[in-house]
# Entry
Amino acid sequence: MTTALPCGSRLPGAVLPALRRSAPVLPVVLLVALLALPVPAGGASSGGGGGTGTLADAASALVVGFCVVRAVRAGRRPLTRTAAVVLGLPVVGITVAAFGASSAATGVAGATRYLQVFVLVPAAVLLLIRDAHHFRLLAWSFVALGLWQGVIGVHQNLTGTGASYMGEDIRAVGTFGSTDVMGMATVVSYGLVCALALAFRPHSPRQRSAAVVCAALLTVPLALSFSRGAWIAAAVACAGVLLLAGVRRAGRVLLAAGAAAVVLVAGLGVGSAMLQERLSSITQVTGTPDQSVTDRYTMWAASVDMWRERPVTGVGLKGFPDHRDSHASLALSAGSDTAGAGSGFVRQPLLSPHNMYLLVLGEQGLLGLTTLAGGWAALVVCAVHRWRRQRSGPNGPGGPELDCALVACGLLSWQLTDFVYADIGGPSTVLTGVAFGLAGWWAVGSHGRAGTGGVR
# Structure
């Protein structure tokens, strides 16, 4: 009894300062944590920025509202000029495309989603992050969410309770359900990229070891997601992280990963025929590709045809479903079959081309693609430029925030690569806005102003 009291009295003293230090970004951490909850029926979307709102979407609105109130009360410009230009550039194309929508309600709904993901949530996250500690806390929240969803996904695969894939309920989808098969793959990929990047944090051996273990564990649910686009994006992002961390480090890690793959696949037989077939189908553009590949390329061609019809402004926000049939060939199927993971058989309509760049090109034209993709390109250039400055700084190779640079560049690499095979839509979409906010803080945020939260 007498020895327990001092321990109990010391606990608040240790916890409260940590909470105070982390308080500015705790709303965003809560937002990330809400994505661990099961998705209600109808919460998923088939893409294109549609779908019903979720609890995480409501939380993101509260976070944005809080930042607006704080900025008004401060009476100062909340963003740097560069950040305001980069994050505000997409507003031009989105607004013009909203006026070209089939109805006012459709335009408002589409504009709200695009502004949420690419402008408002990233700006709010950028403002709430004050230093590298906050940045790493959010990155670790990505890792934790990926591990949680990954554990559920692996359990689904082992017990046959996942989404249907080739006649078996083995596809890992986490809590997102069979109607949002990309949800878990996205969350796990974010966690994998963040964990790999955090493994290069200077002067923190314990966290580096934990990050390495987390990165290794997250490769399993990513494989069991059977998401070809997520696999390609993860390979590109991880390769980029390793190269930015150093060529020698990259070589050592790649050799270790190759040796582990040989042992697991050749020695222990890990890796089913389904995984091998799924991987080989990536290159099946001609010949006899599966129907999903045929549908994807058919919808890509339809988007390009829409752009040719209205090259500058596109067919309007959320206009792809209305114009799809008049531009797609007869090779397009009526929809995608989904089942399993607690849901019955559903014939899900194909409402987007599953390519963010072509979706924007078809619906927003060259104006929308230039402003939106131009902002992303600016983030990449600024992020790499800041990485180079810190790498050549007085603190030695990499600098004290090397892991933050790798997280930002890795997340951008993954997202911009994945956009070739996917678009926004579904409950996990709000996490895309948080990822752009993390990258934005590193690339164009206001640094070195403790206590300002990026306001100046």
Observations:
- The longest strand covers residues 343-348.
- The beta strands are 163-165, 168-171, 336-340, 343-348.
- The chain has one domain: 55-285+350-444.
